[in-house]
Predict the 3D structure of the following.
Amino acid sequence: MKERLQELQAEALQKVEEAVSLKELNDIRVSYLGKKGPITEVLRGMGKLSAEERPVIGSLANEVREAIAQHIEAKQANLEEAAIAEKLAAEKIDVTLPGNPVRSGSKHPLTKVIEEIEDLFISMGYAVAEGPEVEKDYYNFEALNLPKGHPARDMQDSFYITDEILLRTHTSPVQARTMEKHQSKGPVKIICPGKVYRRDNDDATHSHQFMQIEGLVIDENIRMSDLKGTLDVFAKKMFGEDREIRLRPSFFPFTEPSVEMDISCKVCGGRGCSVCKGTGWIEILGAGMVHPNVLEMAGFDSKKYSGFAFGMGPERIAMLKYGVDDIRHFYTNDIRFLKQFSKHEE
Amino acid sequence: MFVSYRWLQEYVDLSGISPEELAEKITKSGIEVEGVEKKSEGLKGVVVGHVLEKEKHPEADKLNKCLVDLGQENPVQIICGAANVDKGQKVAVATVGAVLPGNFKIKKAKLRGEESNGMICSLQELGIEPKVVAKDYSSGIFVFPSDAEVGQDAFSLLGLDDSILELGLTPNRADAMSMLGVAYEVAAILGREVKWPQIEEHASAEDASEYISVNVEAKEDNPLYVAKVIKDVKIGPSPLWMQTLLMNSGIRPHNNIVDITNYVLLEYGQPLHAFDYDKIGSKEILVRKASEGEKIVTLDETERTLKADHLVITNGSEPIALAGVMGGANSEVGSDTTTVLLESAYFTGGVIRKASKDHGLRSEASSRYEKGVDPNRVRQSAERAADLMAKYAAGTVLKGSVTSDSLQAEPAVVSITLDKINKVLGTELQITQIKDIFERLQFAAVVEGQEITVTVPTRRGDITIEEDLIEEVARLYGYDNLPVTLPVAETVPGGLTPYQLKRRRVRSFLEGAGLYQAVTYSLTTDEKAGQYSLEKADTIRLAMPMSEERSTLRLSITPQLLEILKYNLARQNDSIAIYETGSVFLKTEEDELPIEKEQLAGALTGLWHSQLWQGEKKPVDFYVAKGVLEGLFTELGLAGTVTYLPADIAGMHPGRTAEIKLNGEPIGFVGQVHPSVQKEMDLKDTFVFELSLQSILQAQAEPIAYESIPRFPSITRDIALVVNSETAAGDIYGIILEAGGKLLKEVSIFDLYEGDRMEQGKKSVAFSLKYLDPERTLTDEEVTKAHNKVLKAVEEKTGATLRG
Ligand SMILES: [Zn+2]
């Protein structure tokens, strides 16, 4: 019997070894280890054995069973692993195909520039003031030291609706309104973004409608050097720490002294190129100390209070920043244009 | 204003300063130099030639065969096509090897078999703008005066090698509209002297007053009128040097008399006018306001109808000039003129501006009067011009001048303290530095303690108050030298208002949802302005639109967005999703501001999603557009207060448009554009929405009401209801939600079926209902009880049956 058991073990292990599928393995399990299997049969014949032999054969039979079971288990694990590997191999995909697109739009480039400027001045304690786009002649001109018949009114030929009502030609009336409402109560520190309108034929550099963003600070003891410092901070944060600024005298009826600010040309580093028309400088904004007439008209005592104001065109800044060569692109809204401004910028 | 560097040297010493350096200095201290141009830059090889012989080209009627002496050993043959070329002329010859504007290189050539060694040039060919070329030479070659030296460089002779500074003048700097004014500016910058022209006195036996009397009625508009008489003038071309200076300044030479008036205008900034004395028709000058409808033919041969607020120079009855703007044709100086009446006058800005604007006529004279001329140069300029007429037109200047003078020309006196200057600028300047700056400007300045009193010359009419003096100090001290500080103000809370913050959030949401922001024009056509309006209001039209296309303020944004779609579709950009926020304008009373409302509009067309290689495509439809808005309302905490009702809106698809209500108040619409509009505009299926941004930004958001995460399981029951086709799913939804009571937590629609397997006129809507009690596990019986109530309510209110 001992030989028979050893024979069975060898035979079973051989079959386990040769098995190639889980089903085959299961068949081996059933045929060798099942209740009707040859080992059980061997054990059934143990009655014929002596009392000494019985435990020996019994324990041998168990060892054989154990050995076969162990091998089946090991083989099963092998076969299962292979099956999984095969399945995974069949599941392979092309990871280089594009992923599912996520829909996303973006801000208009002008909004991008305006919000960037807003945030910059907000971080310096400014509030954002807004006002009507259709204005009274008084707020658009007269309150800004531009009485009727003033030659500088020609500088910004306007769209009138009636003799007294017009489309604002700059966002300065928001300043006039803010100052008037304020009536000398504490400092004023605002920026005013918005749409403005002038009688211009639309071409690559002119638009009858465009954006403007202006700033105004009024308090006791505001100096021109404060204006210079503020513009310096603005220019460096907006255009880069390596930029230089230059103030040039200019003229605006609502400021005195008045200046224009240039920044050094990024393209040529100040040596002169076609972008800066050979000057090395690029004009960015107009600014100045608030004219005493403007302060007085808004109810501020110009002996006590002083202030500065500045104004710039987001279109111009966006054109410089991104190299847009035609102002009309901002208002045509070609989707191929709009899509280019969706990226985050440092 | 064009300033010749060479000419400027006559009034101020420029030694050691190149034109470019000068431009930089002028720009930094006050007047922007927009460019420095040297016309001969890059050009070469043009000399004065003497035409020795001229004969017809044997093979070509219109060509001339010329033998030209170029100052070299042998004269050369040049073929010339100009009709005015002639033997004996001194002409500008581009020699073989010359380079002309446009990089045009002159080579030896054969023209119809005849050799040509160069080209005889017109001024235009040398780079001079046609509008400043004298009429005599406008369609032919230029002829030099006979004393021009053969072989001499023609560029230099024509002043083309001069550097021309283009000044961009702001309206306050009228003083710089003259060479002397620029000289004062440059002298102040460089700390040098101004050199005035020498004027020679002329004392003929006759007195000007024997020839003319001057009478000014309109003294307010014309406080000073000076007339001089110059007899026996010989009309001819002015000297070449004068012509080239005029051309370099942008003025066309005419004849010696007219050129002299223009030359002095450029020199002094004082407009002058020369009348042909014999054509005036009287011995009287009367300056008065025009009578309404009165007519004058001006020098440009245009008949102009005058208004009562225009000023005219008359001969006592007839107008002979539109004062300060343009002379009359009836008294024009011409080749037969022998006696000149020279006018130098002070007209006030307003009256000239009005006439100039009404007639669309901006002349060198009017642009100076508009901004204000120096009252103290009126007489001097007349003397200067008369002197030049004696020198260059062989005239006899009659003694004295005839004037009408009521002008007050006192210089302004302005005082300021050192402290004020330093306080405004943030500087620590000393009084001596301030005084030095005013001295450089040639302003008389008297220092008394810390106060400085400045007498401002009348040439600088722009300086009237302290701040004007501060600006002079600042610009000459140099903005580069100004300290850099930041305001030391009490801190005020800045930042965005809640409204502004929320508006940014709306934009970010829409962009995140896949829409691009557009910005369009507020002005549109009358017709478009009122379309898709949310408000019943009239549109506002401009008084004087530049075009019909941009004539009226919009009442809605949608039409503009449709235009954008049309534009993009025409360029194969088929899938578009855009939005805009902006103002619309509602008319109120005449002379009252309109009501401006901020609105939000969107437009979608084409595909919403597409995964090309997977073949999935989802076109935009009504529910895509509505879904964007639902998402937005959820973001703003308004989802529970917004309802959608079927609506019929002009220009919209009648069956696919919903009115949007917020707390029961209409705030806008969403839907498909009417197919006929789509067709008309070449649009594909297009879905739009427009709503009051103000309403949604000002609405109170539902507060965030935190509920603990449920610890007990929910039970879901699905039902499919068969209802009449017209029954709105939203209504059934509302009934279910109301009947479901406290336990019903969520209702969603998961299927809609209308088709073959349904009875005609019926549809099936499937709802999923989720029941939950946060306190305990629900029993089946409890849910059934609640659910039956729902079914009963739906059945009673809509006649729905459960689908089998
Ligand atoms: Zn550059």
Summary: Chain A touches chain B through 87 residues (CB under 8 Å).
